[in-house]
Design goal:
By secondary structure, this protein is of the alpha/beta class. Helix content is 48%, strand content 14%. The longest helix has 21 residues.
């Protein structure tokens, strides 16, 4: 492998390529600077300036040098770039702390852009020496340490993970606070969307997917065996439980099976939809309030401010109408959209039901039969394979134009991940946020059985180190999709975080 081949690894333009390029540059610089017996350190805070710094400088850089790695510097207007730096430097207590700012970009930056940026950035601090490196300078550095450069290029992901896990265990809570501050800033700017998954409805007692499927299986078998007097309802429930234990099908496959069983003729599709709707609301845990803290927190974020609405769109993958009920109770104007023919007033908040809509009171809504119900494989394949399906376009538009917060989503859906991957192209930093549950060492290594605590992992310290790496690996993978993880250990934490954002 030669140096030119190394650059081909970063040429596709996706977020994965940016992180790979950043890893290559930072590790090569680390080797180069430490060979001069000088210090090199990464910037740990997501709200910090730059990616690394050389406290004692290096080469011709005298004094504290800040290093910022870019991928598509050449594509942005110089005014936008300098405004970003002005904003970030303004947060520093001591702007004169840095003697040098070194910006390293993947592609060559036009000399005119370089001159303009240096002039504008110098206005922040006239004493700050600014340098911009492109492919020519990077190639010189790589050729100087060719063997090391090739070694780094062949181990990019492991080095990324190594950089991530070198931070002390326990720092995740501090990092979370910084991510929340970033999220709050994004919300205040008003270019904001929310993506809502099953966890949101579960907070109000709605059944999870497996519970709904099991109930539909019972409905199906009851329908099949109505003439069989020797099979009782209890027998049917027992059969369903045993079927799921012995032959556990995928959720989508099971749904296809049910769709064929409950709606054998095209004319029965309406009845099939009614069966799902009835079971969906019948199974709700009435002990939980419809106005859960989580749904209330989401609706508060949708409340228009004096300066206008902050949330532009809400995209939900849930069938139910719980969000609409909460918005109605707070007199927040909104419009439910569940097919490609819906239009809404500019003063209304659009609620996109991209997997279908099954409100409890169907008389309040028109054209529900036109909704694409993504319940089984057929519906899922229809959306997944149609790039121009309205639901895909709606999701992609929000992901490309807004900062998005994902609540109650596992982010394992292949279609959503595909859309995230598309929207993350040519974006250097994650612009979206997702709540994800963090595994604790107590729940991982121990479990309570018959009111007694049992230890399942002997090496608790080793397991804790593994979990730390596991969480960092998940963070790195999600960054490639343009998403920053906001960890929580208890679901009760999410409404409190939403309140922090709103307040």
């Amino acid at each position: 492998m030669n140096v030119e081949d190394i650059f081909l690894k970063f040429a596709n333009g996706g977020q994965r390529d940016f992180f790979s390029f950043e890893t290559f540059i930072l590790n090569l610089l680390k080797y180069h600077i430490e060979n001069q017996d000088k210090k090199f350190a990464l910037v740990e805070s997501p709200r910090g300036i730059g990616d690394a710094f050389a406290e004692e400088g290096f080469d011709n850089f005298k004094g504290h040098t800040l290093i910022d790695v870019k991928y598509s510097l050449h594509r942005l207007p110089s005014k936008v770039l300098t405004d970003q730096y002005v904003h970030r430097f303004s947060r520093l207590d001591k702007q004169s702390y840095f003697s040098n700012l070194l910006i390293i970009n993947f592609q060559a930056v036009p000399s005119r852009t370089v001159s303009r940026m240096i002039d504008e950035l110098s206005s922040i601090n006239p004493k700050l020496k600014i340098s911009i490196w492109g492919p020519e300078e990077i190639t010189k550095l790589a050729n100087k340490h060719k063997k090391k450069a090739i070694e780094i290029a062949n181990n990019l992901f492991s080095l990324r993970l190594e950089n991530a896990v070198t931070k002390e265990a326990g720092d995740w809570e501090k990092e979370r606070d910084e991510q929340i501050e970033l999220l709050k800033e994004c919300y205040e700017r008003g270019q904001f969307s929310m993506f809502l998954g099953a966890g949101v409805s579960s907070s109000a007692g709605m059944p999870d997917w497996n519970t709904l499927l099991n109930s539909l299986f019972v409905s199906y078998l009851t329908k099949e065996f109505t003439q069989q007097t020797n099979i009782s309802d209890d027998d049917i429930k027992q059969i369903v439980e045993r079927l799921n234990t012995i032959d556990e099908p995928s959720a989508l496959m099971a749904a296809r099976y049910l769709r064929k069983g409950l709606a054998k003729q095209t004319t029965e599709i309406k009845e099939f939809t009614k069966t799902i709707t009835d079971n969906l609301y019948k199974l709700r845990d009435a002990k939980k309030s419809l106005n859960s803290e989580l749904i209330s927190g989401i609706s508060n974020l949708c409340m228009p401010r004096r300066t206008g609405a902050k949330v532009r769109t809400v995209i939900t993958y849930n069938f139910d109408d719980l969000i609409e009920r909460q918005l109605n109770s707070k007199s927040i104007q909104h419009h439910s959209i569940y097919n490609d023919n819906e239009a809404f007033d500019p003063d209304e908040l659009p609620i996109y039901h991209v997997h279908g809509f099954l409100p409890e009171d169907t008389l309040k809504y028109e054209g529900l039969e036109k909704s694409t119900l993504v319940f089984s494989e057929e519906g899922y394949h229809q959306i997944y394979t149609d790039a121009y399906h309205w639901s895909n376009l709606v999701q992609l538009t929000s992901l490309r134009e807004n900062n998005c917060l994902m609540v109650g989503l596992s982010l394992t859906d292949p279609n959503l991940r595909r859309l995230l991957d598309i929207s993350a192209r040519n974006i250097e930093r994650p612009r979206h946020f997702a709540f994800m549950k963090r595994l604790s060492i107590e729940n991982f290594a121990f479990s309570e059985i018959d009111e007694k605590k049992h230890q399942f992992v002997k090496n608790v310290k080793g397991a804790e180190e593994f979990l730390n790496r596991h969480h960092k690996l998940n963070e790195e993978i999600m960054k490639e999709l343009g998403v920053s993880i906001i960890w929580f250990t208890s679901f009760d934490e999410i409404p409190k975080i939403l309140t922090r954002i709103y307040n």
